[in-house]
Amino acid sequence: MLKILLPVDGSGNSNKAVKKSIEMKDWYKAIPEIHLLNVQFPLDGNVSLFIHQGDIKQYYQDEGMKCLQNACQLLDCQQMNYRYHIAVGDPADMIEQFATNLNCDLIAISARGHGAIKNLLLGSVVNKVMQLSSVPVLLVK
Q1: Which long-range contacts link 122-131 to residues 24+ away (Cβ below 8 Å)?
Q2: Residues 78, 30: Cα–Cα separation, whole Å
Q3: Domain holding 76: CATH number?
Q4: Do residues 5 and 106 lie in contact, with contact meaning Cβ atoms separated by under 8 Å?
Q5: Rg (alpha carbons) of the chain, rounded to whole number
Q6: Which one, of 23, 10, 2, lies nearest residue 140 by Cα?
Q7: Mean pLDDT, residues 116-138
Q8: Taking a C-beta distance cutoff of 8 angstroms, is the pair 134, 95 a contact?
Q9: Listed residue (127, 3, 81) closest to 139, CA to CA
Q10: Contact 106, 133 (CB under 8 A)
Q11: For residue 132, what are the CA distances in angstroms to 4, 126, 136, 138?
């Protein structure tokens, strides 16, 4: 069975990648196994000195679920099965790690549309994923 990793950040752009994956479901012999991934940035500083570790984990979970909500609704409306994951760390590194660990066949990710100059200046999760990944990456505009 085809496994697709869909990194989502709650933006309209990431929802485009989800919608494209839904559109493509009929292209395959069997409906693919969908894995949604939201990556939260680690909190800065020594937050754990002041806030209980359980509260920090709950914060990441709550923020991740907010970002996953629209993608889950889109897949639910199409009655597509999926799993979701929330990770903490560098987004590109975590996307590559999850794609490898889950044995995904494809990463479907939104091309942000910032343009070449902004991507060059700001850096881009998408560019880094394409460099790191041994899994094919589908860019959705």
Answers
A1: 125/7, 125/91, 125/92, 125/95, 128/92, 128/93, 129/7, 129/92, 129/95, 129/96
A2: 15
A3: 3.40.50.620
A4: yes
A5: 16
A6: 23
A7: 74
A8: no
A9: 127
A10: no
A11: 17, 10, 11, 14
pTM > 0.70: yes or no: yes
CA distance 6 to 75: 12
Tracing tokens 């629209």 back to the chain, one arrives at: 70
Q: Kindly report the number of other CB atoms within 10 A of residue 37's CB atom.
A: 27
Q: How far, in Å, CA of 87 to CA of 114, rounded?
A: 25
Domain count, the chain: 1
Phi then psi dihedrals of residue 98, to 5 deg: -65, -40
Per-residue model confidence as pLDDT tens digits over 50-83: 777 788 889 999 999 999 999 999 999 999 999 9
Find the domain containing 68 and state its range. 3-140
As given in the structure block, the two tokens for residue 125 are 């999760």
